[in-house]
Amino acid sequence: MSVVKSSLSVGQEKKLLSLFGHVRLHLLYKASVHGYMNIAFHSRCDGQGPTVLVAYNKAGFVFGGYISKDYAQTGQVINDDKAFLYSITDQREKPLRVSSTDGQYGFTDGVYGLNVGVMWFLNNSTATVQIVAGNSYTFEAEEMHGNDLQLTECEVYRVEECVGLLETPWRKIDLEGYGTKERLMDYIKNYKPEVKSVVQVRVLLVGPVGAGKSSFFNSINSVFKGHVTGQANTGSAGTSLTTQFRTYSIKAEQGGKALPLVLCDTMGLEEGPGAGLDIDDINSILKGHVQDRYQFNPSMSVQTDGVGFRKSPSLKDTIHCVVYVLDACKVSLLSAKMVDKLAAIRKGINKLGVAQLVLLTKVDEACPLVRKDLTNIYLSHYIERMTREVSVCLGVSQSCVLPVKNYSREFELDVHTDILLLTAVVQMLRYSNNYFDDIYQDGEQSE
Ligand SMILES: Nc1nc2c(ncn2[C@@H]2O[C@H](COP(=O)(O)OP(=O)(O)O)[C@@H](O)[C@H]2O)c(=O)[nH]1
Ligand SMILES: [Mg+2]
User: Fold this and answer.
1) Structural domain tally of the chain?
2) 156 and 283 share a domain?
3) Residue 269: is its pLDDT beyond 90?
4) pTM confidence score
5) Which residues does ligand 1 sit against, CB inside 6 Å?
6) Structural contact between residues 378 and 367, judged by C-beta atoms closer than 8 angstroms
7) Which of these three, 161, 192, 207, is where a domain ends?
């Protein structure tokens, strides 16, 4: 997935946020990525509730409008007493904020961009802001945009109220104390696959670059090591840091027995054809053809005569559970191409009957209440909504979505982080058992 990032500087974001109460901004649309096209704009922004449009020009102005009502392409004038226009520049300490002249008018809900009467963004799918005579909002052009109507970028963010926490948790799990952590660790250590020929469950982690696949392995390894370690390379480069297929065993304790679990880390999924992991690569991995340290070639599928290709894999070499790894902050930004790619992968996996789960990472970055206290995770409206969005987007049930926080900058373990990570592993083992049950029932078990 190309990572869609906000163009707001820290200072600009701070000024923009100062126009609202306690909110967070969620990037929905970015012209340089999705195009200055009305279709792209509306497919991402319609029906999203309160949004703010953020336009940038060469003169250094960041300006646009907030509306509290949906874009819906009704062609109607929408009354919105909360709507306002704003402008931010380095020269001004405080943003300029302009409410509509009559205190009622919000915008005209047409097919092109944001139309606030006097200014029309994305009119005719262009980067030029159209100025229309009128007095729906009154301001000095020089103050609003420095008379520069040619946009260098245009973004729309959903404005989300950070309302408190849910009264009852959306999922019940015991996050309290070391007893829970010990119990989960014991379950994992003592787990035995239902099929005798398999000693270790092989879990494949797939997802966009930067979603936290390598970090998840490092985090699980850390929990069992007793301190934070970083065996697999992690980072924030735009393209895959991991170009090898790696299979990681984890020791239950220093020098001890390996856990009944192998985490398989791959190159990231990327949008375009011929980039990142493709569907044929995944099929080869699923069927057990790809060995540890196989070197992927991002522009070529797995070669059947290549080094590291296993010609006749058995059940123990195949993948028993596929885990889609997605960044909770980017769920709404998954491109249509990425969603299609995931759907195609899922279709192939459905045929094989392999267990499928979703790991939702970076919950700490996605919700400030969770960042403050990880035990808020099952009380967070936002995380609950993200798990729902992911389940709809991938076509899996919500119970298959496992929110976690990986270790990324800490030195020391934290018991709540551990419990979430271990809970995810336990689910992977349980789902793998379902898969083995199916195989067993199909009479394919040889021993
Ligand atoms: N805050 C936070 N950062 C994370 C989390 N998981 C991963 N990261 C960071 O995200 C970046 C990409 O992670 P990485 O594991 O390399 O992604 P991969 O490409 O899927 O293997 C790294 O800088 C990690 O430290 C998480 O749960 N919380
Ligand atoms: Mg990686």
Assistant:
1) 2
2) no
3) no
4) 0.71
5) 207, 209-215, 234-236, 241-242, 268, 325, 361-362, 364-365, 405-406, 408
6) no
7) 161
